[in-house]
Amino acid sequence: MGSGCKAWDQGKHPDCAGDSSPPWCKQQWCYVDPCSCHIPTQPKESMYITGASYQNHPLYYSYATCTEEDNWSHLHNKDSCTMSADEDKCNARTSCGWDGSQCVVKALLGKCAAKVEMKAPEGPKDLGDDDCSCIGWTGIDGKSPVMYSRGLAEYPGDMGSHCKAWDENVHPDCKSEDAPKWCKQAWCYVNPCKCKLGDIPKITVTNLTYSGMKAFYSYATCKEEDLFTSGNNPDACINQFNYHACVSKDHCGWDGAKCNGKAQLDQCNATGAEEVVGLKQCKCIGMAGLNGTKTVQLASSVEEYPADVGAYCKAWDDEEHPDCSADIEDADKPSWCLKKWCMVDPCSCDLPVPPKTTQYFEGAKWGKRHGYYSYSTCGETDEYTADNFAEACTNRSEEHTSELQSP
pTM for the complete prediction? Predict the structure, then answer.
């Protein structure tokens, strides 16, 4: 919808179903980039797809670019910022702002100039060996600071989500000219229970957890030799090369062939507390315990949520979403503010209520799939989607399941 000039509303909009439909039903329109639109009739911000954006801009539509007169907006989109031609009236509205020549959505102010400096899209992320795939959210903005004994390291929000030399120029030991070789080695977080490589993953030295168990990392899945663990974690189970050395470590266990961490041996069979990590047939995904923040794109603002947002069942929007502000009494907040939810893998989710694609993280992916959220796996009824995400597949009459039918 909106990808080219077409009378998109004809036969689709409720007002366009009868024989005496209004003129705008047959008029062509499409979505446009407001920063590249240089015609006398300015485009208007869309009401159709709540929270949607294009290149970090709210969606805008235009009839004029399709050589049509706009007979719709003055009747149905009177609150559009671009309908305010006067600077004072524009600035008097909380959601609008004057950019020097026209009234636009505040979220757009400054974005057009910034767009020129945007980096070219990156290629596909290296998600490691198929027998030990990386886990984590790629395409997430934010910060994940980690405190080591030798100082603070400021990692990006998607740390460990794909193969990359994450420590280079970030870890306290990796900022000098004579930095150790492991600083330039690529690694990522992995699920040890689904890792079939000969070089087993190691438990992280941080406090991160994944689906209720400690997080593990791997250099091997990124086709690197692990030069970090032997020199920086001599007590690591993988460094105990025989049965006696292995069992002498309280945190290690011998699996019959090699030394593994007891955490890995035990936790792969553990289900975790379902009220925290979600139902076993649809477990939460994400790294819990991350410090810092992640940038969340809402319909009318950009907010900073905790860095581990969505990693386990919690009412993540409470006191974070503007509609759920701490200044508002719980009784006056929308009911969904206090509902628990988490991010899930839709292809590993077998619940009567299907998960929905998230609007919060534009372009974010878990592996090769877009982000999905679920209230149901946290034992909650989803009271958010119907009112705030009209374009969710579950709110539409036709089926949109193509992503779930492909890897």
Answer: 0.56
